[in-house]
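Margin note from the TA: students keep mixing up input and output lines. Inputs are the sequences; the output is the structure of the whole complex. Example:
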Amino acid sequence: MPKFTSVAQLEEYRREMQARRDPQQQQVLVCGGAACLALGSEEVAASFREELAGQGLAGRVILKGSGCQGLCAKGPRVLLRPQEITYQRVRPEDAGEVIGETLVRGRVLERLAYQDPNGGAIRAYTSKIPFYQGQFPLVTRRLSLIDPESLDDYLAQGGYDSLSRVLSEMSPEAVMEAVERSGLRGRGGAGFPTGRKWRACRESDGEARHLICNGSEGDPGAFLDRALMEGDPHAILEGMAIGAFAIGAAQGHIYVGHGYPLAVQRLKAAAAQARESGLLGPRILGTDFSFEVKVHRGAGVYVCGEETALLEFIEGKIGEPRNRPPYPPQKGLWGQPTVINNVETWANIPVIIAKGPEWYAALGPEKSKGTKVFSLAGDVKQTGLVEVPMGIPLRRVIFELGGGLKGDRDFKAVQTSGPGGGVLPAQFLDMSVDFESFEAAGGNLGSGSMIVCDEHTCMVDLAKYFLTFSFEESCGKCTPCREGTRQMLAILEDITAGRGQEEQLGLLEELGAAMMSASICGLGQSAPNPVLTTLKYFRPEYETHIRDKKCPALVCRPLLKYTVDPETCTGCLACVRECPVGAVVGEYQEVQEIDQELCAKCGMCYEVCKFEAIKVES
Amino acid sequence: MNDDLISLTIDGRAVKSAPGLSLLLCAREHGIQLPTLCYHDDLKPEGQCRLCLVEIGTAPRTRLVNSCTYPVEPGLNVQTASERVLAARRLVLELLLARCPKAKIIQELAAELGVYESRFRTDNPDELCILCGLCVRTCREVVGVSAISMANRTPNKQVSTPFLEDSEACIGCGSCVFVCPTGVIDYAEKDGIRTVWGRDFELQPCRICGAYIAPKYQLAHWAKITGDPVESFFVCRDCR
């Protein structure tokens, strides 16, 4: 690939390459997303390589590893193009048949095709699968189509077209106005208008300006930024370069969470490619605009995803948040004006330039524009990565894309945005997915994790889970967060252990309100959210734990009671052997009994009983 | 000159302040005292304890900020003792009281706001460290050696030397002990040896009267920063 020294040269190269590429070229794309990799997609790809060679197709069929193909629950996934046939749960030994039957003979392999979890219809083509039909992919649109390590693939899909247009046709002010007019708001959690942030930075005095891409993504259940960084790294670089041009920044930094080594590798590789091709570094595409990017890997601290703690981290200090003001656009990295946007936000920038701000602003309700990527997890049938237009009803995300709840259980709640997000009950299922609606309900559209809970989830236990996370990750700098998370967790531990007092509910609310208004940063300010929203929408569940010492969802162990059903017990003694405390007693082939005093409520007897003779109640 | 002053309102009073001043110091200049734990005149404010909280803005859009780090702004409406401020401040004290029930300064500050006991759980009744960070910041900003720092996060947060081992950077000056509001840092002096942060420091006796001046490491540190020969510090203040 040449080092492009002009916009014209880049466009010429793109045209020639696109002309060379046959749209009917047969491609096998093996998903290299995190879930599929974990399920062995590398072995699947290796097997395809071998089989293609064995069947004499090595030169004729292109085999690629792609980014996340979305339906993570059913990996490893393989996409066949141009047919757009998607196969799931593909094992290495399936490669030969896929090639022989589908590629050569054009027959669909039903056993590897998608099966609708509701009704069982077999659907092989992506366009027929509700999970994909309901989506509106903008920032995720390339993930399943390109090799994340190939700049040519990115260019062939229109990559760096927005940057070349910005550099050849637009002024920094015009770019700024486009982002403002698009209505784009930050996708990292707070939803601050991106254009306004950029302008504040450009209008601040400083010797230099900096750009930061926040790829921390530490929320449990969130994996969307990871998919973007690993699957389409050039899009993030392109978005940052456009932002740098608008703001007047020469240096950018990408902070990647410790748990994402592949993202670090891909972003570094992409930056090196872009540098060699004149798309990054000094005098980009032969213009006067220069921009450099450095990739930083985190050290495993959640709070470093908080923007000012992130600044401290990059400066080499302890990752603890700063007091505001000054805000980063005024005084950020090294005391200079800095824009910090999250991965998904940066990935939206090239889209806004390519499609135009008016087109973008036409998507979604008044104050929430564009699309939102969610990592759909929890008790839904189809977990995975989805991108939907803002304003879509929440119900569609969970029941159409997610396919409803596993085992067709009842929906109980949905938790978004990780430990700082709220828990919303069924009454909000018809709510529109946008910043305002979530905020009004007490939730948070936030970072994009969406965890669906069924009827077997205990709301007090759920709140305790998130509080444990916040407590362990609180940096401890300010009193309300450090001591508040500790005490809030202690109260939840009391309640789930049957030691709760009624007045503790009021204390939780009082403490939550103080933490929200008195903590330094977003972690402490939002940590009470799971507690306050569950208290608001599921208060009777808390009261049952306290008054009746019962856990209706049968989750909180100290409140459970295990008994033997004399009708079904065969006296096989399996439970007797497993019980670690010797609480199950009885003779062989006689009905067993559980000593409630001794019982540790570990549930082992329940697990091993083949006759469902162990009953659990609360 | 007066044009440069910033006009704002504190507790309903129109006041003028030099630009760049924090709300805490501006309030003090106008006779309003706010409780603080982690604030010190000689150190950069860090806003950790959250006791100096004030409410800014006009209803219904108000919020709490810590006055030690928030600068005066033209037209700002500040309330230093609103219901919301007092409620948050009381709760912060209640949390600190649960953490350090025996810390006298916490007991006193809490009592001033009518808080005599905490509704929260105490894990260690003998805990005295309120994690205000004054020691760490003094060591870094005043002494200039950074021998101690905050280590770990909330569950195990503590002030410590690196890896809890003897700090080679420590000069034994005892500034951390002096600045600590609760007296939690162990410190002893016996037979010409000062012990602090688990390390023994040999003290330099005065060449004239023989009274101990300071640890030898500290005098060496002085010599380094002043450029004077270390021997020039071997006479105590009284004998000079």
